[in-house]
Design goal:
Blueprint lengths: L25 E7 L6 H15 L4 E8 L5 H11 L3 E6 L4 H11 L4 E5 L10 H10 L4 E5 L6 E3 L2 H18 L10 E5 H7 L10 H11 L4 E5 L1 E3 L8 H21 L15 H4 L8 H26 L5 H24 L8 H29 L5 H27 L3 H16 L2 H5 L23 H10 L19
Parallel strand pairs: 1-2, 1-4, 2-3, 5-8, 6-9
Antiparallel strand pairs: 4-7, 5-7
Helix pairs in contact: 3-16, 5-8, 10-11, 10-13, 11-12, 12-13
Length: 486
């Protein structure tokens, strides 16, 4: 999806470096609310598993969602006893709010979360985050609905889960298989741009994040998991399902009207510098052809109805010109939005003006066909006129698509990005142009250890982070020696 108001795109994915000892590459968040009994066993088990199997430095963050029992005390004790554990307190409930707040303050380049009941087998954790570390994917999710997954849960929850995912597929065209599994990960550079677009602060947070990421063309990696249902889960199924359906309606409406600037999440073709120099590579041709054919079919029907209506009180040439003019304006608007993904009002007048030029070409073809028909017979049947117009419109349609794609709606987003990259490259020193791009920070995630988070700071820090999202630097490897050509 493309808009005219995008501030930029994400950089190409690159493999994260191993980093120095003690620098967290992975930050696993555990959102909790009144989990005083399960929290300590969960954290100890997760810490033991990561220390034994995870090859990078890590951190475990306990995100307390306004617990009223002794959960905050347990969390503080764990943070005091284990160096890799920290505690984060929020005064308002909401899993989405907790994840947004913690992920916004984390310095780790890979962010993950899991439920406190550890229903998902921890052996899936490394396969979950490995594609993010390698630069292959942007997000990763555990899937309980994969054929190779092993799941133990009741019939009621199984039915609700599958029904919910069918709703997502039917209404939002989601292609990921499991939206609500509490086992997900995201790269921090993606989270910095994606999360400010996510409105939900509760259980629908996961679904909204995944739908927007998928619509933006980000790569989502799925990992089959072994999952055992927690019979003591405190999730209110009916209320959660109702909130989720409201979220589906809200997101579907936002996508339909094009109010989300998803193109700021676009990725370059690849992380090979040679790929970034490619020009004139057609993008999305198959999708555009399908959209253009659908719009064209509907426009043709609309045109024929208008022509038949105008033909009642005027001649064939005037009826054809009026019908083609009205349908051309509607066709340009529909193709602008649905086929070529241009959102917003910017450039709309220019696009319509260019569309009218294309309309003139179509008018010449169809009017010429009618003139030839009149020359061939003095009183052609109405059905013959329609047949001639359909043939002429087919020829005009092919030409219209080529002109729309190459002239009216060229891929200006990629042109702007290529120009920005070229400008940055030309201004860099010669040795830097031969090596990988340089960045202003000495190390992508070699930062000071974040200060303890106070209870009242979460909302302010989140708002500050959201306001500055576009200006933040991406998490990418950096050369400390320009002569290093690795």
């Amino acid at each position: 999806m493309r808009t005219d108001s995008s501030p930029g795109t994400l950089p190409a994915r690159e493999h994260l470096p191993a980093g120095d000892a003690g620098t967290p590459v992975l930050d696993v968040v555990i959102p909790v609310h009144n989990e005083e009994k399960d929290l300590r066993p969960c954290v100890l088990r997760l810490h033991e598993h990561l220390g034994r199997t995870f090859p990078y430095a890590f951190r475990i963050t306990i995100a307390d969602n306004a617990s009223t029992d002794t959960t905050p005390l347990v969390a503080r004790r764990l943070a005091a006893d284990i160096p890799e554990v920290r505690s984060f307190r929020l005064e308002r409930k909401g899993r989405g709010r907790a994840l947004r707040s913690v992920w916004s303050t984390s310095d780790a380049p890979v962010l993950a979360y899991m439920d406190v009941d550890l229903s998902t087998d921890l052996n899936a954790l490394l396969p979950l985050v490995a594609p993010l570390i390698s630069g292959h994917s942007d997000l990763a999710i555990g899937s309980r609905l994969s054929r190779s997954s092993r799941v133990v849960r009741g019939t009621k929850r199984e039915f609700i889960s599958r029904a919910y995912n069918l709703i997502l597929r039917g209404s939002l065209q989601a292609r990921f298989s499991d939206a609500q599994c509490g086992f997900k990960a995201i790269r921090r550079d993606v989270a910095q741009v994606l999360l400010p677009l996510v409105e939900d602060t509760g259980w629908f947070f996961d679904t909204e994040m995944l739908v927007l990421a998928e619509r933006a063309g980000l790569r989502i990696h799925e990992v089959p998991v072994d999952w055992v249902d927690d019979p003591d889960s405190t999730v209110h199924i009916v209320r959660t399902a109702t909130d989720d359906l409201r979220g589906v309606w809200r997101v579907g409406r936002a996508l339909a009207v094009g109010s989300l600037p998803l193109d700021r999440l676009a990725r370059p073709f690849g992380d090979d510098p040679r790929d970034r120099d490619l020009e004139d590579v057609p993008k999305g041709l198959a999708r555009q052809l399908v959209g253009f054919c659908v719009v064209g079919g509907l426009s043709t029907l609309f045109y024929l109805l208008l022509y038949s209506g105008f033909r009642v009180f005027t001649g064939p040439q005037a009826a054809n010109a009026l019908a083609l003019l009205v349908s051309a304006v509607a066709n340009t608007a529909a193709n602008r939005r649905l086929t070529f993904g241009v959102r917003g009002r910017g450039g709309a007048v220019r696009h319509q003006a260019q569309g009218l030029v294309v309309f003139g070409i179509g008018l010449a073809l169809t009017s010429g066909s009618l003139a030839a028909l009149d020359a061939a017979t003095s009183d052609p049947a109405h059905s013959t006129e329609l047949a001639v117009l359909i043939a002429a419109n087919l020829a005009a349609t092919v030409l219209r698509f080529l002109l729309f794609r190459a002239w009216v709606f060229p891929d200006r987003q990629e042109e702007r990005h290529s120009a920005a990259v070229a400008s940055h490259t030309s201004s860099a020193p010669a040795h830097a142009q031969r090596s990988r791009p340089q960045y202003p920070h000495p190390h992508p995630y070699r930062q000071q250890t974040p200060a303890p988070v106070r209870a009242g700071d979460a909302a302010d820090r989140t708002r500050t982070w959201e306001d500055a999202t576009v200006r933040l630097q991406p998490v990418r490897p950096t050369d400390t020696d320009p002569r290093d050509f690795r």
